[in-house]
Amino acid sequence: MSTDEFPTDRPAVVTCGLPYANGDLHIGHLRGYIGADAFNRTLETLGQETAYVSGSDMHGTPVAVNAEQDGVDPADFALEWHDQYEETFPKFNVEFDNYGHTHDETNTQLTQEIVRTLDEEGYVYEKEIQVAYDPDADQYLPDRYVEGTCPYCGKKARGDECDEGCQRHLEPGEVEDPTSTITGNPAEYRERSHKFFEVSAFADYLTDFLDNLEGTSNARNQPRQWIEDGLQDWCITRDMDWGIDYPNGTADGDDEDDLVLYVWVDAPIEYVASTKQYSERVGTDEYDWERVWKEDGDIVHVIGRDIIQHHTIFWPAMLEGAGYNAPRAVAATGFITINGKGLSTSRNRAIWAKEYLEEGFHPDLLRYYLTTTGGLQQDVDFSWDAFQETVNGELVGTVGNFWYRSLLFAYRNYEGTPEVDVSPDVADRIEGAIGDVRENVNDYSLRGVGQAAVELAQFGNEYIQRNEPWKLTDDDSEARSASEEPSGDEPRGPEQAAQVIRDCVQIAKAVGVLLEPITPEKSQQLWAQIGEEGTVADAHIEDALEAPPRNFDEPGELFAKIEDDRVDELNAKLEERVAAAGADAEESDTEHDDTDGDESADATDTSEAATTDLEALAEDRIGFEDFQELDIRVGRIETAEGIEGADDLARLEVDIGLETRQVVAGIKQLHDLEQLPGTKCVLLANMEPAELFGVESNGMILAAGEEADLLTTHGDAALGEKIK
RNA sequence: UGCGGGAUAGGAUAAUGGCAGUCCACGGGGCUCAUAUCCCCGAGGCCCAGGUUCGACUCCUGGUCCCGCAACCA
């Protein structure tokens, strides 16, 4: 590892986090794949020898569980997702040099080889541990097959992680009061012999490693804390069938056959395996995977920030222990939010890869948005409104407009590039942009790379505007030359027009070269428009200064505006979908309640308890004016349905005369929702809107006490009448 | 109560301890080659309180507020 700037004279490899073969891809995933792809493309543009590799992550309990539920073989299940991913990436111009998967032969062999080495080097030991076991299902319960109580914070936790409480990684056997997620029965602990990787032996090594690690700051800082707290050795085997077998001859005990490696052991090794496959395909003369991974290659991992631990603790320790090269950089991306709220696949608040394409948007638009909207490390919000703003403002208005106006002018007046040399000032400006790209890629700032290109286009617009070549061309310059004499030091008239347009074509080309890592396809179209041969992807960044071909055809517009009503439509679709997901989930929730006898018992318990201790009366009196601020109206419940995941909450539509409001109310425990429609109620109408369980609530239904006894009217007050 | 991230103009987003920049929106002007696109000018900003410093958006302490994480959703 070295801190030489890119491009280095060593081979590099860029990876993105492995997609887990368990579900559809969405823009949260894409951010990482596109980011790594753009980074790799930028390195290529700089002349760096590099490869971009990844693969599908096929093992682990979620795949095993879901495959079982679908009644299919886990390998088939995972492969189906793998195939889908492989088809999807090119559609976003994400071009891997190799894309494999963790279940293939290369990874299986390499994983076993590396683990064997770790074992031989004395970094692996065996320990008897307590493993949860489900006597009814007659099987052991690794990781998420078991849940229980976190021994550190006392909260409910999954078998491998205290997900709701302290977020600690839990080792097998740590969870208290284990329950089987297969049968729901209490699990018992049985003693089993498992393999442990001695991570604790690497504490000093890892501290040094982090000091030299490039990438994003969160990937350096977070693990320092973990090291200070003390590293736990890492249990690397599991009692299950789906996974890579622990290498033969080293495990002992009768049930050796059942032990597979923990998914996080073989997953990162896929980075190496995938590189190896690439090397084997193109030949080691062209790209030598062993040099990269075992000698002096520059290894760059782009990951999501949730897997920093694996990439800055476990993984470098494994690499070091097995005699491999250490990563040069770990760049951890932030999350994507949708309209300011957390992306949620279960609530369908997500922009799916497939959906984006079906809407007919060009992949380069999303690539640009995701890479330039925020820093790599920052959380980035996605909304169709912001997407529109970025596309229309920067890609259409600045880049597209500059490209089109320059090339069209050049084509009409000169049938291509005017035959003069580019002016020194413009060449300097382009040189400056090239410098910005170099600097930014070394800072792992894709945003900066994109900005350097767009700012150059912006300069182009200023330049053409300032020089007004349209006033200087042959056609109508005669009239002008009478009034506007040459100002002496600068040539005015046709020669200057030719110079300006010559410069603009050069700038247009440069923008195309510089933007290629982010908008490869659009840049390629520009490349073709100016009559260049070959592909812009193969161009070197210095080609931005090379003269474009003399002649080219009439150019076309490369970016189209996104209209307002299109955005309205997309917003409506998204809202609808989120609402529908809530309703679907609610149905299954209701089914649950029916079979759950405890629910009704709970309700009676609380109603009895509620009568015994009453809240003390409030001391503070309020004025009439304070009361008047409350806009309380008579309403009628039109529809009522439960909300997914909530014990008491219901989604109501309430007619309050002037309009119908959607309200979320905690009234499910006492009232039968089916009886509610038609019932009059009292609603606080100027309550701030709130979102509860993903459902927006626009008002507050008045009800009494803990179990929410609904208030109503006894006369025939009209809907919408104010309570005074 | 936990962990992580954050707070900069109306909205969004930057700045090795050294003049707070950029985009959208807004007000004014200009251009007509260009997709009503583009260019120029203007107004408008560092969460609060301390501390370190010649100098703090930046570093330290304390506080306030926001966001994410709770069926693998990165």
From TrEMBL:
CC cofactor: Zn(2+)
Enzymatic reactions: tRNA(Met) + L-methionine + ATP = L-methionyl-tRNA(Met) + AMP + diphosphate
Originating gene: metG
Protein source organism: Salinadaptatus halalkaliphilus
One Gene Ontology cellular component: aminoacyl-tRNA synthetase multienzyme complex
EC class (word): ligase
Protein name in the entry: Methionine--tRNA ligase
PANTHER family: METHIONINE--TRNA LIGASE (PTHR45765), METHIONINE--TRNA LIGASE, CYTOPLASMIC (PTHR45765:SF1)
Lineage: Archaea, Methanobacteriati, Methanobacteriota, Stenosarchaea group, Halobacteria
GO terms classed as biological process: methionyl-tRNA aminoacylation
NCBIfam families on file: metG, PRK00133.1
Binding residue positions for ATP: 345
Record keyword Zinc present: yes
Sequence motif 'HIGH' region, residues: 19-29
Family the entry assigns: Belongs to the class-I aminoacyl-tRNA synthetase family. MetG type 1 subfamily.
